[in-house]
Design brief:
The protein has four helices and three strands; from the N terminus they run E-E-E-H-H-H-H. The protein is of the alpha+beta class and 131 residues long.
């Protein structure tokens, strides 16, 4: 079994090492121009056990709130096939597994009720209860 090649160091950094074949120690995929170990910094690194709710709250809810205030927003997903994009966007069938799309729609449609004469929309209180 090979060791992980992306190791979270904090909530903003990961250490990436070149994956090796456990049989002979050589690079498992291709020769890389990346040094044997590199540290990368991001705005936020989410561990594997991050819930759909936490991910939505930290990434997408601020965008939805901006849209409800009349600003433009864009959420772009990118990744290799079978990396979890569809699950993150759509979610699963289990309780609490709704993805960012149904959660966004829930916030938007629950905010429509709060429309005022000045065209502004109220933002619902958190936490979201999506089933």
């Amino acid at each position: 079994m090979s060791s992980p090649y992306l190791i979270p160091l904090s909530d903003t950094t990961v250490n990436m090492t070149n994956p090796h074949d456990p049989q002979d120690g050589r690079s498992k995929y291709r020769f890389s121009t990346v040094p044997p170990s590199s540290i990368y910094t991001f705005s936020h690194v989410f561990p594997r056990n991050t819930s759909q709710s936490d991910f939505f709250t930290k990434t997408t809810l601020p965008l939805v709130q901006d849209v409800l205030q009349g600003q433009n927003a864009l959420l772009f997903t990118y990744g290799v096939t079978n990396s979890g994009k569809t699950y993150t966007v759509q979610g699963g069938n289990e309780k609490g597994a709704a993805g960012i799309l149904p959660r966004s729609l829930d916030v938007i449609f629950n905010s429509i009720e709060g429309l005022h004469g000045d065209g502004r929309v109220r933002i619902p209180n958190l936490p979201l209860q999506i089933h």
